[in-house]
Amino acid sequence: MSAIYTWGATNEKGESDPLCRVTLYALKGVWETEMERALVIGDTGGIGAALAATLRQRGVKVRGMSRRDGFDVTEPASVEAQLGALKDVFDLVFVASGALTSTRSGPEKALRDVSAEEMAAQFAVNAIGPALVLRHAKRLLPRKGRSIFAVLSARVGSIGDNRAGGWYSYRASKAALNQIVRTASIEIARTHRKAMCVALHPGTVLTPFTAGYPCHAKNTPEEAAGNLLDVVNGLKASDTGGFFDYSGARVEW
Ligand SMILES: NC(=O)c1ccc[n+]([C@@H]2O[C@H](COP(=O)([O-])OP(=O)(O)OC[C@H]3O[C@@H](n4cnc5c(N)ncnc54)[C@H](OP(=O)(O)O)[C@@H]3O)[C@@H](O)[C@H]2O)c1
């Protein structure tokens, strides 16, 4: 489905083609006709860059933010200054930043590996950072009309699905992120009735993030971006506060 999208939104030179987009809208419903602007946090990452590129191919105006521009989610002052300065509203805000480890070369395998430094740093980048972005959600999303605030979580953040153990800091930070997203969705729905705030698991994706795990089957970032945008396109108002994987299936908390 994402291949049809990409073809439909661009001509043979890769330029945005309004005529093709008309065909695309007929194929995929009304969401693309309404989506004009997206904000991608972490657009330098494997998945974030592919999301930004795919959205641009579909004719969406994308604003990217990353540490390249001095936007660091672990630095509250930089989040406040840069998001506070934005005057636009966005139909889609996608937080694609995050890290598997912060002070170690790999995630913890056993309790003896747990350290306060790693756990605090993982919470800072994976949970507190997105929460600081969410502080701006009600201003960045339109009050009326459909909009999405999506955050990349991870299936290993699911407490119910945890059968393998290990990875204490990463798992706990993503579980905290899921709770933050769920809680924010309830507040945002009070003023933004058509806004959906969701946590998404992208699948295992071939990015620097998974470089240490060569044996796993991985999707390309482009495939992951297409899958995630299909999920975003299919969300209903009743899905807000949910945790979904790249196929649109709910992930247990
Ligand atoms: N890849 C997978 O298989 C997989 C699976 C499950 C979940 N995820 C989740 O998907 C997200 C993206 O993963 P990825 O594979 O695209 O990873 P990636 O290629 O390593 O990209 C990570 C992104 O996060 C940004 N980032 C890291 N620390 C930051 C900070 N302090 N402030 C602002 N931005 C920061 C990076 O920006 P810089 O350019 O500034 O470093 C980069 O844009 C993560 O949240 C990850 O947990 C990935």
Automatic annotation (TrEMBL):
Q: Which residue ranges traverse the bilayer?
A: none
Q: Give coiled-coil spans as residue ranges.
A: none
The protein's superkingdom reads Bacteria
GO cellular component term, pick one:
cytoplasm
Q: What InterPro entries is this protein classified in?
A: Fungal_SecMetab_SDRs, NAD(P)-bd_dom_sf, SDR_fam
Against Pfam families, the record matches this protein to: adh_short_C2
Cite the GO molecular-function annotations of the record.
Answer: oxidoreductase activity
Q: What is this protein called?
A: NAD(P)-dependent dehydrogenase (Short-subunit alcohol dehydrogenase family)
User: Which species does the entry assign this protein to?
Assistant: Shimia abyssi
